[in-house]
């Protein structure tokens, strides 16, 4: 009888744990889809190139509000930025020229993997986020990143990170970003689940591709 009760208890715990992980992944996906980040890669790790990276950062952030002035969400902000990519590239290169650099700049919008990052009292967990990616020259130096939408590039944006998040995301997501230590284990579990899912998808894709080749 005791073994049966213990088995039932373990099953309940597994179900509750799985549900908790599923909710955490849902919130993380909401966050990833609701954020647009800025990712600037320096030409190299030399002091001069790292300083140039910061000059480009300041030049772009000074114009970011104009580029996304009426965006209602991250998807809208991305659409607006897409229209300004040539201008963003031009501003970055003009900034480099002003400081004596002849490096070219590549600008694109893409999905990028980011580590954990804290902005004031808000912590964004590691994940795959949409980003405006600015590559300077060889783009082999240390990078710099922030959040363009909602605007968390503190202090350049001059805003309150907690307030910005509360206006854009559900209470669950805000709690997750305000209390990251409470979700540490669940974040790790989500990472494992995603890894297994991606591995299975890749294997399935390989098998389908192999079957098509054999059929030919």
* Principal-axes shape call: globular
Sheet of most strands: 4 strands, mixed
Structural class: alpha+beta
* Low-pLDDT stretches: 4-17, 154-158
Mean pLDDT: 83
Straight-line N-to-C gap: 59 Å
Helix percentage range: 55-70%
Record the strand order, biggest sheet: 2-5-1-6
Secondary structure tally, helices: 7
Work out the oligomeric state of the chains in this entry. Answer: single chain
Q: Provide the succession of SSEs.
A: HEHHHEEEEEHHH
Q: What is the CA-atom radius of gyration, in angstroms? A: 22 Å
Number of strands: 6
- β-strand percent reads 15-25%
Defining key terms:
two-stranded antiparallel ribbon; about 220 residues; single chain; alpha+beta; four-stranded mixed sheet; 6 strands; about 60% helix
Description:
By secondary structure, the chain is of the alpha+beta class. It has helices at residues 2-34, 47-67, 74-83, 85-98, 161-168, 171-178, 184-215; strands at 36-41, 105-114, 117-119, 122-124, 127-136, 143-149. It has a four-stranded mixed beta sheet. A hairpin with a 2-residue loop joins strand 3 and strand 4. The protein is globular and about 55 Å long. Residues 4-17 and 154-158 have low confidence and may be disordered.
């Amino acid at each position: 009888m005791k073994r049966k009760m213990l088995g039932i208890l373990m099953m309940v715990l597994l179900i509750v744990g799985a549900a908790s992980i599923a909710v955490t992944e849902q919130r993380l996906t909401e966050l990833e889809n609701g954020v647009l980040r800025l990712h600037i890669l320096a030409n190299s790790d030399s002091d001069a190139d790292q300083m140039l990276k910061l000059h480009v950062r300041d030049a772009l952030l000074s114009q970011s509000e104009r580029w996304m002035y009426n965006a209602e969400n991250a998807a809208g902000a991305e659409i607006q930025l897409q229209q300004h990519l040539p201008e963003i590239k031009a501003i970055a290169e003009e900034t480099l020229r002003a400081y004596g650099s002849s490096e070219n700049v590549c600008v694109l919008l893409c999905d990028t993997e980011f580590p954990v990052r804290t902005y004031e009292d808000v912590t964004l967990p590691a994940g795959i986020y949409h980003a405006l990616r600015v590559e300077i020259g060889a783009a082999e130096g240390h990078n710099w990143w922030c959040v363009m939408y909602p605007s968390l590039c503190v202090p350049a944006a001059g805003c309150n990170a907690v307030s910005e998040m509360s206006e854009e995301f559900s209470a669950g997501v805000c709690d997750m970003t305000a209390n990251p230590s409470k979700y540490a284990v669940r974040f790790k579990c989500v990472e494992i689940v995603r890894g297994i899912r991606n591995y299975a998808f890749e294997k399935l894709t390989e098998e389908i591709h192999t079957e098509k080749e054999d059929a030919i």
